[in-house]
Design goal:
The complex is a heterodimer of chains A (about 150) and B (about 375). By secondary structure, chain A is an alpha/beta fold. Helix content of chain A is about 45%, strand content about 20%. Chain A has a five-stranded parallel β-sheet with strand order 2-1-3-4-5, with helices on both faces. In chain A, helix 3 packs parallel to helix 4. By secondary structure, chain B is an alpha+beta fold. The chains are: A alpha/beta (about 150), B alpha+beta (about 375).
Chain lengths: ~150, ~375
Protein backbone atom coordinates (compact mmCIF):
# COMPACT_ATOMS: atom_id res chain seq x y z
CA UNK A 1 0.00 0.00 0.00
CA UNK A 2 1.47 3.38 -0.94
CA UNK A 3 0.99 6.54 1.02
CA UNK A 4 -1.91 7.81 -1.08
CA UNK A 5 -3.91 4.65 -0.60
CA UNK A 6 -3.04 4.85 3.01
CA UNK A 7 -4.62 8.32 3.19
CA UNK A 8 -8.02 6.70 2.65
CA UNK A 9 -7.30 4.18 5.33
CA UNK A 10 -6.84 6.57 8.22
CA UNK A 11 -9.76 5.66 10.39
CA UNK A 12 -10.27 8.94 12.12
CA UNK A 13 -8.98 12.45 12.79
CA UNK A 14 -9.77 13.85 16.23
CA UNK A 15 -9.40 17.64 16.52
CA UNK A 16 -9.17 18.85 20.12
CA UNK A 17 -9.17 22.65 20.50
CA UNK A 18 -11.40 25.04 22.41
CA UNK A 19 -11.05 27.62 19.64
CA UNK A 20 -13.79 27.05 17.06
CA UNK A 21 -12.01 28.92 14.27
CA UNK A 22 -8.89 26.80 14.75
CA UNK A 23 -10.99 23.64 14.45
CA UNK A 24 -12.65 24.97 11.30
CA UNK A 25 -9.26 25.85 9.87
CA UNK A 26 -7.94 22.38 10.56
CA UNK A 27 -11.03 20.79 9.00
CA UNK A 28 -10.45 22.87 5.85
CA UNK A 29 -6.80 21.85 5.77
CA UNK A 30 -7.79 18.19 5.97
CA UNK A 31 -10.09 18.68 2.97
CA UNK A 32 -7.34 20.46 1.07
CA UNK A 33 -5.07 17.47 1.75
CA UNK A 34 -7.80 15.16 0.39
CA UNK A 35 -8.25 13.39 3.68
CA UNK A 36 -11.49 11.44 3.46
CA UNK A 37 -11.38 10.01 6.95
CA UNK A 38 -13.93 10.70 9.61
CA UNK A 39 -13.17 14.04 11.28
CA UNK A 40 -14.39 14.49 14.82
CA UNK A 41 -14.19 17.97 16.35
CA UNK A 42 -14.28 18.42 20.13
CA UNK A 43 -13.64 21.52 22.21
CA UNK A 44 -12.33 20.01 25.43
CA UNK A 45 -10.19 17.24 26.82
CA UNK A 46 -13.23 15.72 28.52
CA UNK A 47 -15.08 15.39 25.21
CA UNK A 48 -11.96 13.89 23.63
CA UNK A 49 -11.80 11.20 26.33
CA UNK A 50 -15.55 10.56 25.93
CA UNK A 51 -15.11 10.13 22.18
CA UNK A 52 -12.17 7.76 22.53
CA UNK A 53 -13.98 5.65 25.12
CA UNK A 54 -17.44 5.85 23.45
CA UNK A 55 -18.92 7.38 26.56
CA UNK A 56 -21.10 10.41 27.29
CA UNK A 57 -22.41 11.86 24.02
CA UNK A 58 -20.64 9.10 22.08
CA UNK A 59 -22.25 6.06 23.71
CA UNK A 60 -23.90 4.99 20.44
CA UNK A 61 -20.61 5.22 18.48
CA UNK A 62 -19.65 1.77 17.31
CA UNK A 63 -17.33 2.30 14.32
CA UNK A 64 -15.16 5.13 15.59
CA UNK A 65 -12.56 5.42 16.64
CA UNK A 66 -10.49 2.36 16.01
CA UNK A 67 -7.30 4.26 15.30
CA UNK A 68 -6.17 7.60 14.02
CA UNK A 69 -4.50 10.94 14.46
CA UNK A 70 -5.26 13.29 17.33
CA UNK A 71 -4.45 17.01 17.01
CA UNK A 72 -4.25 18.21 20.60
CA UNK A 73 -4.19 21.82 21.82
CA UNK A 74 -2.42 22.53 25.14
CA UNK A 75 -4.38 25.47 26.53
CA UNK A 76 -8.01 24.61 27.04
CA UNK A 77 -10.34 25.30 29.93
CA UNK A 78 -11.38 22.55 32.39
CA UNK A 79 -9.24 19.70 31.03
CA UNK A 80 -6.24 21.01 29.13
CA UNK A 81 -3.92 19.07 26.83
CA UNK A 82 -1.67 17.88 29.67
CA UNK A 83 -4.67 16.76 31.76
CA UNK A 84 -6.01 14.89 28.75
CA UNK A 85 -2.70 13.06 28.42
CA UNK A 86 -2.83 12.11 32.10
CA UNK A 87 -6.23 10.49 31.51
CA UNK A 88 -5.14 9.00 28.20
CA UNK A 89 -2.19 7.32 29.93
CA UNK A 90 -4.68 5.14 31.80
CA UNK A 91 -5.75 3.49 28.51
CA UNK A 92 -4.18 0.10 27.85
CA UNK A 93 -1.00 0.05 25.76
CA UNK A 94 -2.55 -1.60 22.68
CA UNK A 95 -5.28 1.05 22.43
CA UNK A 96 -2.76 3.81 22.86
CA UNK A 97 -0.50 2.39 20.17
CA UNK A 98 -3.30 2.89 17.60
CA UNK A 99 -3.39 6.64 18.08
CA UNK A 100 -0.88 9.19 16.91
CA UNK A 101 -1.01 12.29 19.10
CA UNK A 102 0.26 15.56 17.70
CA UNK A 103 0.50 18.39 20.20
CA UNK A 104 -0.21 21.80 18.72
CA UNK A 105 0.48 25.00 20.57
CA UNK A 106 0.82 28.72 20.13
CA UNK A 107 3.11 28.80 23.18
CA UNK A 108 6.78 29.61 22.65
CA UNK A 109 7.67 28.52 26.18
CA UNK A 110 10.51 26.00 25.75
CA UNK A 111 9.38 24.23 28.92
CA UNK A 112 6.22 23.08 27.06
CA UNK A 113 8.39 21.47 24.38
CA UNK A 114 10.63 19.89 27.03
CA UNK A 115 7.61 18.55 28.87
CA UNK A 116 6.19 17.12 25.65
CA UNK A 117 9.51 15.38 24.86
CA UNK A 118 9.17 13.51 28.15
CA UNK A 119 5.76 12.10 27.27
CA UNK A 120 5.87 8.97 25.18
CA UNK A 121 2.29 9.28 23.89
CA UNK A 122 3.10 12.54 22.12
CA UNK A 123 4.47 11.60 18.70
CA UNK A 124 4.92 15.14 17.36
CA UNK A 125 5.04 18.64 18.79
CA UNK A 126 4.22 21.51 16.45
CA UNK A 127 3.73 25.24 16.72
CA UNK A 128 0.57 26.82 15.43
CA UNK A 129 -0.61 27.69 12.88
CA UNK A 130 -0.88 24.29 11.25
CA UNK A 131 0.08 24.51 7.56
CA UNK A 132 -0.61 22.16 4.66
CA UNK A 133 3.06 21.10 4.75
CA UNK A 134 2.83 20.36 8.49
CA UNK A 135 -0.31 18.32 7.99
CA UNK A 136 1.26 16.31 5.14
CA UNK A 137 4.27 15.62 7.32
CA UNK A 138 1.97 14.48 10.14
CA UNK A 139 0.26 12.05 7.75
CA UNK A 140 3.63 10.89 6.42
CA UNK A 141 4.93 10.29 9.95
CA UNK A 142 1.76 8.45 10.89
CA UNK A 143 2.24 6.28 7.80
CA UNK A 144 5.81 5.49 8.87
CA UNK A 145 4.62 4.88 12.42
CA UNK A 146 1.92 2.42 11.36
CA UNK A 147 4.24 0.70 8.83
CA UNK A 148 6.83 0.28 11.57
CA UNK A 149 4.27 -1.40 13.77
CA UNK A 150 3.35 -4.06 11.23
CA UNK B 1 20.81 54.77 79.36
CA UNK B 2 21.35 51.58 77.39
CA UNK B 3 18.21 49.58 76.75
CA UNK B 4 19.46 46.16 77.83
CA UNK B 5 16.37 44.29 76.81
CA UNK B 6 16.49 45.68 73.28
CA UNK B 7 20.26 45.19 73.05
CA UNK B 8 19.90 41.55 74.12
CA UNK B 9 17.10 41.04 71.57
CA UNK B 10 19.38 42.40 68.82
CA UNK B 11 22.20 40.19 70.07
CA UNK B 12 20.03 37.06 69.97
CA UNK B 13 18.92 37.93 66.43
CA UNK B 14 22.57 38.21 65.40
CA UNK B 15 23.36 34.86 67.07
CA UNK B 16 20.55 33.19 65.14
CA UNK B 17 21.89 34.59 61.89
CA UNK B 18 25.37 33.22 62.57
CA UNK B 19 23.99 29.85 63.65
CA UNK B 20 23.08 29.36 59.97
CA UNK B 21 26.78 28.91 59.18
CA UNK B 22 27.83 25.33 58.64
CA UNK B 23 30.93 25.34 60.88
CA UNK B 24 31.88 21.77 59.98
CA UNK B 25 31.91 22.45 56.27
CA UNK B 26 35.18 24.37 56.10
CA UNK B 27 38.35 23.29 57.86
CA UNK B 28 39.34 26.84 58.84
CA UNK B 29 37.17 27.03 61.97
CA UNK B 30 38.55 23.78 63.36
CA UNK B 31 42.11 24.83 62.50
CA UNK B 32 41.81 28.15 64.33
CA UNK B 33 40.24 26.54 67.43
CA UNK B 34 42.93 23.80 67.46
CA UNK B 35 45.56 26.47 67.04
CA UNK B 36 44.14 28.42 70.00
CA UNK B 37 44.45 25.33 72.23
CA UNK B 38 47.95 24.61 70.97
CA UNK B 39 49.42 28.14 71.16
CA UNK B 40 47.82 28.85 74.54
CA UNK B 41 48.85 25.39 75.79
CA UNK B 42 45.43 24.40 77.15
CA UNK B 43 43.70 20.98 76.72
CA UNK B 44 40.33 22.39 75.63
CA UNK B 45 39.34 25.21 73.25
CA UNK B 46 35.81 26.06 72.09
CA UNK B 47 34.03 28.42 69.77
CA UNK B 48 30.71 29.16 71.48
CA UNK B 49 27.65 31.16 70.43
CA UNK B 50 25.52 32.33 73.34
CA UNK B 51 21.81 31.95 72.53
CA UNK B 52 18.80 32.96 74.66
CA UNK B 53 18.74 29.82 76.83
CA UNK B 54 21.69 27.76 75.68
CA UNK B 55 25.33 28.06 74.76
CA UNK B 56 26.12 26.43 71.41
CA UNK B 57 29.61 24.91 71.27
CA UNK B 58 29.98 25.03 67.49
CA UNK B 59 33.66 24.15 67.13
CA UNK B 60 35.46 22.00 69.69
CA UNK B 61 39.03 21.01 70.42
CA UNK B 62 39.57 18.47 73.21
CA UNK B 63 35.88 17.79 74.05
CA UNK B 64 32.83 16.61 72.15
CA UNK B 65 29.94 18.24 74.02
CA UNK B 66 27.90 20.45 71.64
CA UNK B 67 25.45 22.34 73.82
CA UNK B 68 25.27 23.65 77.37
CA UNK B 69 22.67 25.56 79.38
CA UNK B 70 23.27 29.29 79.43
CA UNK B 71 23.23 29.55 83.27
CA UNK B 72 26.27 27.32 83.75
CA UNK B 73 28.20 28.78 80.82
CA UNK B 74 31.40 30.71 81.46
CA UNK B 75 30.91 32.40 78.12
CA UNK B 76 28.04 34.59 79.38
CA UNK B 77 30.45 36.73 81.40
CA UNK B 78 32.70 37.36 78.40
CA UNK B 79 29.64 38.33 76.37
CA UNK B 80 28.49 40.64 79.18
CA UNK B 81 31.84 42.36 79.62
CA UNK B 82 32.63 42.30 75.89
CA UNK B 83 36.31 41.92 76.75
CA UNK B 84 38.98 39.25 77.26
CA UNK B 85 38.61 37.40 80.54
CA UNK B 86 41.25 35.16 82.20
CA UNK B 87 40.48 33.31 85.45
CA UNK B 88 43.49 31.37 86.75
CA UNK B 89 41.44 29.47 89.36
CA UNK B 90 37.67 29.51 89.08
CA UNK B 91 37.19 28.12 92.60
CA UNK B 92 38.42 31.49 93.87
CA UNK B 93 35.84 33.42 91.86
CA UNK B 94 32.38 33.89 93.40
CA UNK B 95 30.76 33.82 89.95
CA UNK B 96 31.85 30.24 89.37
CA UNK B 97 32.31 28.51 92.73
CA UNK B 98 28.73 27.23 92.69
CA UNK B 99 28.90 26.15 89.02
CA UNK B 100 28.30 22.35 88.69
CA UNK B 101 31.08 22.20 86.07
CA UNK B 102 33.40 23.34 88.82
CA UNK B 103 32.31 21.36 91.89
CA UNK B 104 31.44 18.12 90.01
CA UNK B 105 32.96 16.46 86.93
CA UNK B 106 34.77 17.60 84.88
CA UNK B 107 35.87 19.95 87.71
CA UNK B 108 36.98 22.92 85.61
CA UNK B 109 39.70 25.04 87.22
CA UNK B 110 41.00 27.40 84.55
CA UNK B 111 38.98 29.53 82.11
CA UNK B 112 39.91 32.17 79.54
CA UNK B 113 37.61 33.65 76.91
CA UNK B 114 37.89 36.28 74.17
CA UNK B 115 34.68 37.85 72.82
CA UNK B 116 33.47 37.24 69.25
CA UNK B 117 32.86 40.90 68.51
CA UNK B 118 31.06 41.65 65.25
CA UNK B 119 31.82 44.75 63.18
CA UNK B 120 28.37 45.98 64.26
CA UNK B 121 29.63 46.05 67.88
CA UNK B 122 27.52 43.07 68.98
CA UNK B 123 29.16 40.21 70.89
CA UNK B 124 27.69 36.86 69.89
CA UNK B 125 29.91 34.43 71.82
CA UNK B 126 33.48 33.59 72.69
CA UNK B 127 36.61 31.76 71.73
CA UNK B 128 37.52 30.16 75.04
CA UNK B 129 40.00 27.87 76.77
CA UNK B 130 39.55 25.42 79.67
CA UNK B 131 41.88 23.48 81.90
CA UNK B 132 41.22 21.05 84.73
CA UNK B 133 44.06 22.47 86.82
CA UNK B 134 44.63 26.10 87.78
CA UNK B 135 46.63 27.76 85.03
CA UNK B 136 47.33 31.12 83.42
CA UNK B 137 47.89 32.88 80.10
CA UNK B 138 51.09 34.72 79.27
CA UNK B 139 50.62 38.22 77.78
CA UNK B 140 51.61 36.80 74.39
CA UNK B 141 49.04 33.98 74.74
CA UNK B 142 46.37 36.52 75.71
CA UNK B 143 47.22 38.53 72.60
CA UNK B 144 47.14 35.31 70.53
CA UNK B 145 43.68 34.41 71.85
CA UNK B 146 42.38 37.92 71.11
CA UNK B 147 43.80 37.87 67.56
CA UNK B 148 42.44 34.40 66.85
CA UNK B 149 38.98 35.35 68.12
CA UNK B 150 38.89 38.40 65.85
CA UNK B 151 40.15 36.24 62.93
CA UNK B 152 37.42 33.69 63.50
CA UNK B 153 34.80 36.47 63.75
CA UNK B 154 35.98 37.93 60.43
CA UNK B 155 35.71 34.49 58.86
CA UNK B 156 32.18 34.07 60.19
CA UNK B 157 31.09 37.46 58.89
CA UNK B 158 32.57 36.66 55.51
CA UNK B 159 30.81 33.29 55.42
CA UNK B 160 27.48 34.78 56.38
CA UNK B 161 27.68 37.58 53.82
CA UNK B 162 28.51 34.95 51.16
CA UNK B 163 25.51 32.98 52.26
CA UNK B 164 23.22 36.02 52.19
CA UNK B 165 24.59 37.06 48.82
CA UNK B 166 23.93 33.59 47.47
CA UNK B 167 20.37 33.74 48.75
CA UNK B 168 19.93 37.18 47.18
CA UNK B 169 21.23 35.92 43.85
CA UNK B 170 18.92 32.92 44.02
CA UNK B 171 16.00 35.18 44.86
CA UNK B 172 16.77 37.42 41.87
CA UNK B 173 17.14 34.41 39.59
CA UNK B 174 13.81 33.11 40.85
CA UNK B 175 12.20 36.47 40.18
CA UNK B 176 13.69 36.61 36.69
CA UNK B 177 12.36 33.15 36.03
CA UNK B 178 8.86 34.13 37.04
CA UNK B 179 9.10 37.31 34.95
CA UNK B 180 10.14 35.19 32.00
CA UNK B 181 7.20 32.89 32.73
CA UNK B 182 4.85 35.89 32.65
CA UNK B 183 6.40 36.97 29.36
CA UNK B 184 5.79 33.47 27.97
CA UNK B 185 2.18 33.49 29.14
CA UNK B 186 1.57 36.94 27.67
CA UNK B 187 3.26 36.01 24.40
CA UNK B 188 1.13 32.88 24.27
CA UNK B 189 -2.02 34.90 24.84
CA UNK B 190 -1.08 37.17 21.95
CA UNK B 191 0.22 34.38 19.73
CA UNK B 192 -2.91 32.28 20.19
CA UNK B 193 -5.29 34.56 18.21
CA UNK B 194 -2.40 35.57 15.95
CA UNK B 195 -1.76 31.99 14.84
CA UNK B 196 -5.44 31.70 13.96
CA UNK B 197 -5.15 34.76 11.72
CA UNK B 198 -1.95 33.38 10.19
CA UNK B 199 -3.68 30.09 9.48
CA UNK B 200 -6.66 31.80 7.88
CA UNK B 201 -4.44 34.04 5.74
CA UNK B 202 -2.12 31.18 4.71
CA UNK B 203 -4.94 29.19 3.13
CA UNK B 204 -6.00 32.17 1.07
CA UNK B 205 -2.42 32.99 0.13
CA UNK B 206 -1.80 29.53 -1.33
CA UNK B 207 -5.14 29.56 -3.13
CA UNK B 208 -6.60 26.77 -1.06
CA UNK B 209 -9.43 28.95 0.02
CA UNK B 210 -11.60 31.59 -1.57
CA UNK B 211 -12.17 34.76 0.39
CA UNK B 212 -15.88 34.57 1.07
CA UNK B 213 -18.09 36.25 3.65
CA UNK B 214 -17.59 33.41 6.11
CA UNK B 215 -13.82 33.59 5.82
CA UNK B 216 -13.77 37.36 6.32
CA UNK B 217 -16.03 36.95 9.33
CA UNK B 218 -13.57 34.50 10.86
CA UNK B 219 -10.63 36.82 10.22
CA UNK B 220 -12.57 39.69 11.80
CA UNK B 221 -13.35 37.57 14.85
CA UNK B 222 -9.76 36.45 15.25
CA UNK B 223 -8.52 40.04 14.82
CA UNK B 224 -10.93 41.24 17.50
CA UNK B 225 -9.71 38.49 19.81
CA UNK B 226 -6.15 39.63 19.28
CA UNK B 227 -7.09 43.25 19.90
CA UNK B 228 -8.90 42.35 23.14
CA UNK B 229 -5.97 40.26 24.34
CA UNK B 230 -3.52 43.11 23.76
CA UNK B 231 -5.87 45.58 25.44
CA UNK B 232 -6.32 43.40 28.50
CA UNK B 233 -2.55 42.89 28.84
CA UNK B 234 -1.94 46.61 28.52
CA UNK B 235 -4.72 47.42 30.97
CA UNK B 236 -3.29 45.02 33.49
CA UNK B 237 -0.01 46.92 33.37
CA UNK B 238 -1.67 50.31 33.50
CA UNK B 239 -3.82 49.32 36.45
CA UNK B 240 -0.76 48.90 38.60
CA UNK B 241 1.06 51.90 37.29
CA UNK B 242 -1.40 54.69 36.81
CA UNK B 243 -1.24 56.22 40.23
CA UNK B 244 -3.05 59.32 39.09
CA UNK B 245 -6.10 57.33 38.07
CA UNK B 246 -5.98 55.41 41.32
CA UNK B 247 -5.77 58.64 43.26
CA UNK B 248 -8.77 60.00 41.44
CA UNK B 249 -10.82 56.87 42.17
CA UNK B 250 -9.67 57.00 45.79
CA UNK B 251 -10.88 60.59 46.03
CA UNK B 252 -14.29 59.71 44.60
CA UNK B 253 -14.46 56.76 46.95
CA UNK B 254 -13.84 58.97 49.98
CA UNK B 255 -16.43 61.66 49.22
CA UNK B 256 -19.17 61.39 51.84
CA UNK B 257 -21.73 64.04 50.97
CA UNK B 258 -22.53 62.82 47.50
CA UNK B 259 -23.33 59.38 46.21
CA UNK B 260 -21.07 59.12 43.16
CA UNK B 261 -21.54 55.94 41.22
CA UNK B 262 -20.62 54.54 37.83
CA UNK B 263 -23.28 52.78 35.79
CA UNK B 264 -22.71 50.61 32.75
CA UNK B 265 -24.74 51.07 29.57
CA UNK B 266 -27.68 49.20 31.05
CA UNK B 267 -27.64 51.14 34.31
CA UNK B 268 -25.97 48.42 36.39
CA UNK B 269 -23.92 49.72 39.30
CA UNK B 270 -20.14 49.34 38.92
CA UNK B 271 -18.74 51.15 41.96
CA UNK B 272 -19.96 52.46 45.28
CA UNK B 273 -18.43 55.33 47.26
CA UNK B 274 -18.74 56.25 50.93
CA UNK B 275 -21.36 58.89 50.14
CA UNK B 276 -23.52 56.32 48.38
CA UNK B 277 -23.25 54.01 51.38
CA UNK B 278 -24.15 56.85 53.75
CA UNK B 279 -27.10 58.12 51.74
CA UNK B 280 -28.54 54.84 50.51
CA UNK B 281 -27.50 52.43 53.22
CA UNK B 282 -26.15 49.59 51.03
CA UNK B 283 -22.67 48.11 51.47
CA UNK B 284 -20.66 47.88 48.23
CA UNK B 285 -20.95 44.07 48.19
CA UNK B 286 -24.75 44.26 48.43
CA UNK B 287 -25.26 46.65 45.56
CA UNK B 288 -22.47 46.46 42.96
CA UNK B 289 -23.82 44.71 39.87
CA UNK B 290 -27.47 45.54 40.64
CA UNK B 291 -29.45 47.93 38.45
CA UNK B 292 -29.78 51.50 39.73
CA UNK B 293 -33.58 51.19 39.41
CA UNK B 294 -33.59 49.64 42.92
CA UNK B 295 -33.38 53.21 44.27
CA UNK B 296 -36.69 54.15 42.71
CA UNK B 297 -40.16 54.02 44.22
CA UNK B 298 -42.69 51.59 42.84
CA UNK B 299 -44.61 54.54 41.41
CA UNK B 300 -41.51 55.69 39.51
CA UNK B 301 -40.79 52.17 38.31
CA UNK B 302 -44.29 51.95 36.94
CA UNK B 303 -43.70 54.96 34.72
CA UNK B 304 -40.18 53.66 33.87
CA UNK B 305 -38.53 56.73 35.34
CA UNK B 306 -35.03 55.18 35.61
CA UNK B 307 -35.07 54.01 31.98
CA UNK B 308 -36.32 57.42 30.83
CA UNK B 309 -33.49 59.18 32.67
CA UNK B 310 -30.94 56.86 31.05
CA UNK B 311 -32.48 57.48 27.65
CA UNK B 312 -32.42 61.24 28.21
CA UNK B 313 -28.78 61.14 29.32
CA UNK B 314 -27.89 59.05 26.27
CA UNK B 315 -29.64 61.52 24.01
CA UNK B 316 -28.60 64.84 25.56
CA UNK B 317 -25.43 63.86 27.41
CA UNK B 318 -26.97 64.41 30.84
CA UNK B 319 -30.22 64.15 32.78
CA UNK B 320 -31.19 66.05 35.92
CA UNK B 321 -33.87 64.91 38.28
CA UNK B 322 -35.22 65.48 41.76
CA UNK B 323 -37.49 63.19 43.64
CA UNK B 324 -38.10 60.57 46.28
CA UNK B 325 -35.66 57.72 46.26
CA UNK B 326 -35.69 54.53 48.32
CA UNK B 327 -32.99 53.53 50.83
CA UNK B 328 -31.99 49.96 51.67
CA UNK B 329 -34.28 49.94 54.74
CA UNK B 330 -37.23 51.02 52.59
CA UNK B 331 -37.36 54.59 53.88
CA UNK B 332 -37.37 57.46 51.42
CA UNK B 333 -35.14 60.47 50.91
CA UNK B 334 -35.48 63.48 48.65
CA UNK B 335 -32.62 63.30 46.21
CA UNK B 336 -31.16 65.59 43.63
CA UNK B 337 -29.74 63.51 40.79
CA UNK B 338 -27.44 64.24 37.89
CA UNK B 339 -26.76 61.48 35.38
CA UNK B 340 -23.99 62.12 32.85
CA UNK B 341 -23.21 59.92 29.88
CA UNK B 342 -19.64 58.63 29.35
CA UNK B 343 -18.54 58.21 25.75
CA UNK B 344 -15.74 56.25 24.12
CA UNK B 345 -13.47 57.64 21.41
CA UNK B 346 -16.00 56.80 18.75
CA UNK B 347 -18.62 58.84 20.59
CA UNK B 348 -20.67 55.84 21.66
CA UNK B 349 -22.16 55.82 25.15
CA UNK B 350 -20.31 53.26 27.27
CA UNK B 351 -21.78 54.10 30.65
CA UNK B 352 -22.93 56.83 33.03
CA UNK B 353 -21.88 58.64 36.16
CA UNK B 354 -24.63 59.31 38.63
CA UNK B 355 -24.27 61.92 41.35
CA UNK B 356 -26.96 61.95 44.03
CA UNK B 357 -27.33 64.47 46.81
CA UNK B 358 -29.60 63.95 49.77
CA UNK B 359 -31.65 67.13 50.15
CA UNK B 360 -34.10 65.87 52.73
CA UNK B 361 -31.70 66.35 55.60
CA UNK B 362 -30.91 69.90 54.69
CA UNK B 363 -32.95 72.66 56.19
CA UNK B 364 -34.68 73.24 52.94
CA UNK B 365 -37.89 71.66 53.99
CA UNK B 366 -39.98 74.24 52.23
CA UNK B 367 -38.06 73.95 49.05
CA UNK B 368 -38.44 70.23 49.25
CA UNK B 369 -42.15 70.54 49.80
CA UNK B 370 -42.42 72.90 46.86
CA UNK B 371 -40.49 70.51 44.73
CA UNK B 372 -42.70 67.68 45.89
CA UNK B 373 -45.80 69.61 44.97
CA UNK B 374 -44.27 70.37 41.58
CA UNK B 375 -43.36 66.71 41.26
CA UNK B 376 -46.93 65.67 42.04
CA UNK B 377 -48.28 68.18 39.58
CA UNK B 378 -45.89 66.86 37.01
CA UNK B 379 -47.10 63.32 37.71
CA UNK B 380 -50.70 64.36 37.44
CA UNK B 381 -49.92 66.08 34.15
CA UNK B 382 -48.16 62.97 32.86
CA UNK B 383 -50.99 60.73 33.97
CA UNK B 384 -53.62 62.92 32.40
CA UNK B 385 -51.58 63.36 29.23
Amino acid sequence: MNQNDFLKEINCFLLVDDDKITNLLHTKLLKICHVQSHVEVVTSGVQAIDFLTCKGAYTSNKNFPQSGIILLDINMPVMNGWDFLDEYKKFDKITRSKFFIVMLTSSIDPSDKNKADEIEDIKMFLNKPLTKENLLSIIHNYYLYVSGMN
Amino acid sequence: MKDFKLAEKRRIEAVHQFLQIDFDKSKEYQEIVDLAAELCEKPVALLSLLDKDVNWLKVRSGVSIQIMPKETSFCQYVVQSESLMVIDDVTKDSRFDDNPLVYTEPKVRFYAGAPLLLSSGITIGSLCLFDLKPNTLTPLQQKTLAVLSSQITNLMELDLSHKLLKLKVEEIEERNKSLQKIAFIQSHEIRHPLTTIMGLVNLVRYNYQEVDEEWIQMIVEATNNLDNKILSIVNETIENKDIRTNRFYKMVEEIEDYAIILLDKEGNIENWNKGAEKIKGYKPIEIIGKNFSVFYTSEDLEIQRPQKLINLATEKGFAKDEGWRVKKDGSRFWGSILITAIHNQEGEVIGFTKVTRDLSEKKEREEVNMAYIAYLEDQVKKLSA
